[in-house]
Amino acid sequence: MPANLPPQYYELERAFKEEQDINEKLRMAEELHRIMPKHKGTYKLQAEMKTKISKLKKLIAGGGEKVHGAKNAPTHDHVEKEGAAQIIIIGAPNAGKSSLVDAMTHAKPLVADYPYSTREPLTGMALNDTVQLQLIDTPPISPDLFESYMNSLIRNADIVLLVADLASETMVADVEFILNALEEKRVLLKKDNLEKADDPKFSYKNTVICAHKSFEDEDGTKQVELAKLFPDFKIVATSILDEESLVQLQVVLFEATGKMRIYTKPIGHDPDYKDPIIIPVNGTVSDAAYALHRDIAEKLKFAKVWGEGKFDGQKVQPDFVLGYKDIVEFHV
Ligand SMILES: Nc1nc2c(ncn2[C@@H]2O[C@H](COP(=O)(O)OP(=O)(O)OP(=O)(O)O)[C@@H](O)[C@H]2O)c(=O)[nH]1
Ligand SMILES: [Mg+2]
């Protein structure tokens, strides 16, 4: 029986064969398996692809392919996720990436007034209104440098923060170079997570742009240029001299994750504002219960909800859609 595979299968298969990055290879293998028509003619192909997927997973779990004599060489192509979202900070040399991590976290990256000061990734946790965001500072991307691990790091992150340096004469050329360099590696930056990713050869990454060193752009011309270059993208003006701008940046970064905070309230007690649970925007009472504990979700009978558009203590069913910062009291 013929396999009758769609044309995009062959296209993706070619990209899969050429791909060197194992995380990306895994993503493509899973996509190939997903788009493969499931009938008798593809049984063998389905099985082969499953084997490839499982081998790639093992390889990734084992820390990647072992290169002879380089077993202990440090690898930077993966940062274990922590907190509500992992945000990778990218930009041209000297844009202010490390300064942002320095200003928003307890990490102590090297900040320097010369380019190429950051040599390897470094992570720090930013606390935004009780939610932790994991920031990754990275070496710059330029015609002279594109560390090979950057591609994997970017693909694995939840959000890309692209830092545009308003103080630089070459800001536009620098960000355009980065966009093109990423596209060559099959990574496309996109404005939000509502857009559909339509070409499986590409990884589409939710991106926030920061118009950084905003005090250096007194008449705002650089910000206008940036907005023209990135219509529809979320652009936040930031400066390490303006604490409020950094708080705003964190708010936008968290929003870009497509998640929201929900507060829980034990029966007969005040809400717990210190430890919100994080669920997708438009998530339900049941999602919130699962995020708290599987047991609660499975035994849940109803909940009481406080928040905008509800009356206080409104009794709702598990499929009730929650809103930003709603307070939920679970009844099991
Ligand atoms: N005026 C102004 N200068 C800033 C701001 N943020 C960073 N800088 C300066 O910009 C320079 C570069 O900062 P870094 O944070 O080291 O830049 P980077 O992007 O990490 O640089 P590389 O790691 O070399 O790519 C330093 O001299 C900082 O003091 C800002 O908001 N305003
Ligand atoms: Mg740096």
The number of strands is 12
Mean pLDDT: 89
CATH class of the largest domain: Alpha Beta
How many domains, in number, for the residues?
A: 3
The amount of beta strand, in percent, is 15-25%
Biggest sheet character: 7 strands, mixed
Cα(first) to Cα(last) distance is 53 Å
What is bound: which ligands? guanosine-5'-triphosphate, magnesium ion
What would you give as the CATH superfamily of the largest domain?
A: P-loop containing nucleotide triphosphate hydrolases
Q: Quaternary status of these chains?
A: single chain
Number of helices: 10
H/E element string?
HHHEHEEHEHEEHEHEEHHEEE
User: Rough shape?
Assistant: globular
- Helix/strand/pairing category: alpha/beta
The CATH topology of the largest domain is given as Rossmann fold
Q: Nearest-angstrom radius of gyration?
A: 23 Å
Identify the CATH architecture of the largest domain: 3-Layer(aba) Sandwich
Secondary structure: helix percent: 25-40%
Parts with pLDDT < 50 across at least 5 consecutive residues: 66-73
Summarize this structure as a short list of keywords or feature phrases.
binds guanosine-5'-triphosphate, globular, binds magnesium ion, 332 residues, Ubiquitin-like (UB roll), alpha/beta
